[in-house]
Design brief:
The complex is a heterodimer of chains A (about 140) and B (about 260). Chain A is an all-alpha fold and about 140 residues long. Chain A contains 5 helices and no strands. Chain A is about 70% helix and about 0% strand. In chain A, helix 2 crosses helix 4 and helix 4 runs antiparallel to helix 5. In chain B, the strands form 2 sheets. In chain B, strands 2-1-5-3-4 form a 5-stranded mixed β-sheet, covered by helices on one side. A two-stranded antiparallel ribbon of chain B has the order 6-7. The longest helix of chain B is centred in the last third of the chain and has 14 residues. Classes of the chains: A mainly alpha (about 140), B alpha+beta (about 260). The complex binds iron/sulfur cluster and FE2/S2 (inorganic) cluster.
């Protein structure tokens, strides 16, 4: 690394810095995660859409009792939980990458990312909460 | 200069209608800060050419006969030195490898500097950030083991592994065609990754893990969105996107 630190980049763009922030595999794992979660999501989301919209009666039969019935089984709880987290992290990471690509000013990038992370946390927390604390008797 | 260039063409046997001299218009994006320009602007230059002439010939004719202030880089004129990459009709190409007959001769042919690097004058950009990215990946043989008494031998098979990426002439057509580089000049860019690939997959080189670490950076290979602009732009026909993917794969498996 010493060679790269010794040399300096010319004026127009700020100099490239290694070492301080660079030494992490974060981008590698994020790239891998997108591939793996994408594959799993194809299966989960298409399955979800098929069950909800096409299978006996389709969307007409969905009501409170139907949802309550599904979430009484741990299988559907886990399915929905995994789908929620994967979709949220996959989409959020995708948006993070897009913000990195297109937001040129540092402050714009900061605020866009802050809004993105806040909305991700909000949705993940409320979604997870509902799946685990759902009470079929309030109806 | 013009005489010597024109003489053989004038005496060239007429090979059908294809070789009629005709006038085409070059629409060049001029910028001269020394003359007080604050913004680049487009100017039309009608120039008489043979359809088999190259854009570089047309530029030379304009510079020699119409406007000596037109500024561009060129050296070998044979697609080897990599100094005359420019954006011709919206695509990055080498002016010395682009035949006029391959473009639409009835409309104005646009010629502008490559994008994403700071414009200095007319068709000339500051290439320093581009070369710096190339230097950053340590583009030289790195070895740790004992030096052999004679040359470092390599099998044909091992050589074929990185043959494609040895063809790079550092023209910057790829990096300045990349939309990620346009918005983020810190990205290493395809050319630097091609340069790294050439050594990472060289069986004689022992610096692979060091280069992989450098390209694992936030601004390294993971910024690549497989847009394929680089592969389309490369005048040497290097499969750049594939090379970048191979580096990604090597990073994941840590095997080359
Ligand atoms: S990879 Fe191709 S386009 Fe890129 S700098 Fe090298 S020769 Fe030019
Ligand atoms: S002038 Fe050398 S590559 Fe075009």
């Amino acid at each position: 690394m010493s060679q790269t630190e010794a040399t300096e980049i010319g004026a127009p763009r700020s100099p490239r810095t290694f070492g301080s922030s660079g030494r992490s595999n974060f981008e590698l794992y994020s790239w891998l995660f997108m591939r793996v979660s994408g594959l799993v999501l194809v299966f989960l989301v298409l399955g979800h859409l098929f069950i909800m919209n096409i299978l006996d009666g389709g969307v007409q039969r969905i009501n409170f009792a139907f949802v309550a019935g599904r979430w009484s089984s741990p299988f559907w709880q886990v399915w929905d939980l995994v789908m929620l987290w994967l979709a949220q992290l996959h989409g959020g990471n995708g948006l993070r990458v897009i913000i990195n690509d297109y937001a040129e000013r540092d402050t714009t990038r900061l605020w866009l990312k802050a809004a993105l992370y806040a909305s991700m946390v909000l949705i993940l927390v409320t979604g997870t909460l509902v799946i685990f604390t759902f009470d079929p008797n309030i109806g | 200069m013009t005489e010597t260039l024109d003489t053989p063409l004038d005496h060239a046997p007429e090979a059908g209608a294809g070789l009629q001299r005709r006038t085409v218009t070059l629409r060049i994006r001029r910028f001269n800060p020394e003359a007080g320009d604050t913004e680049p602007s487009w100017h039309d230059y009608p120039v008489e050419v043979l359809p088999t002439d190259r854009i570089l010939d047309a530029l030379n004719k304009i510079k020699w006969e119409q406007d000596g202030t037109l500024t561009y880089r060129r050296s070998c004129a044979h697609g080897i030195c990599g100094s005359d990459a420019m954006r011709i009709n919206g695509r990055n190409r080498l002016a010395c490898k682009t035949l006029i007959k391959d473009l639409n001769m009835d409309a104005a042919i646009t010629v502008e500097a490559i994008k994403g690097l700071p414009l200095e004058k007319d068709l000339i950009v500051d290439m320093e950030p581009f070369f710096q990215a190339y230097r950053d990946i340590n583009p030289f043989l790195i070895t740790e083991s004992h030096e052999p008494t004679r040359e470092r031998l390599q099998s044909q098979h091992d050589r074929d592994r990185f043959d494609d990426t040895t063809k790079c002439i550092l023209c910057a057509a790829c990096t300045t065609a990349c939309p990620v580089f346009w918005t983020d000049g810190q990205y290493f860019g395809p050319a630097a990754i091609v340069g790294a690939h050439r050594f990472i997959f060289d069986s004689r080189d022992e610096g692979a893990s060091q280069r992989l670490d450098i390209l694992n950076d936030r601004e390294g290979v993971w910024r690549c969105r497989t847009t394929f602009n680089c592969t389309e732009a490369c005048p040497r026909g290097i499969q750049i996107t594939q090379a970048i993917q191979e580096v990604k794969r090597a990073l994941i498996s840590r095997r080359v």
